[in-house]
Design brief:
five-stranded mixed β-sheet, globular, 5 strands, 4 helices, single chain, binds tetrahydrodeoxyuridine
Length: 128
């Protein structure tokens, strides 16, 4: 199942999270329409505000490889409860796929949202 592959890739990327300050590793895996998966982890910095979330790191990897036809993303945090994407990541992903499927992977449950549900009345390219 494609969701299983996505979760696996997100878990692998989570192991690479650079999180000396928050000690809160996150992994994300983004699926493209042609079945490719781009993963990412959060990367923190001594200048805390420069931190890049796992979701944006996966997205930037894909875009820079010429892929932007996204279908779904899986996000793995380090908590029992699923970790939802931050507001900045919601906005960042909305740019490319307003109805992106977002799978939040918790230890006990997986919750799936449509990005439009998580970012209603979003500002996007169509507003410019
Ligand atoms: N983080 C993510 O990577 N994705 C999110 O959507 C939530 C927050 C990271 C940022 C920071 O490195 C750590 O989690 C704690 O906020």
């Amino acid at each position: 199942m494609v969701e299983d592959r996505l979760i696996q890739k997100a878990l692998e990327a989570q192991k690479n999270a650079y999180v000396p300050y928050s000690v809160f590793p996150v992994g994300a895996a983004l699926l493209t329409a042609d079945g490719e998966i781009f993963s990412g982890c959060n990367v923190e910095n001594a200048s805390y505000g420069l931190t890049i979330c796992a979701e944006r790191s996966a997205c930037v990897k894909a875009i820079s490889e010429g892929k932007k036809d996204f279908i779904a993303i899986a996000i793995v945090g380090d908590q029992d409860n699923p970790t939802p994407p931050c507001g900045a990541c919601r906005q960042f992903l909305y740019e490319f796929k307003p109805d992106l499927k977002i799978h939040l992977i918790g230890r006990e449950e997986i919750i799936t949202f449509d990005l439009r549900e998580l970012l209603p009345e979003a500002f996007g390219p169509e507003n410019l």
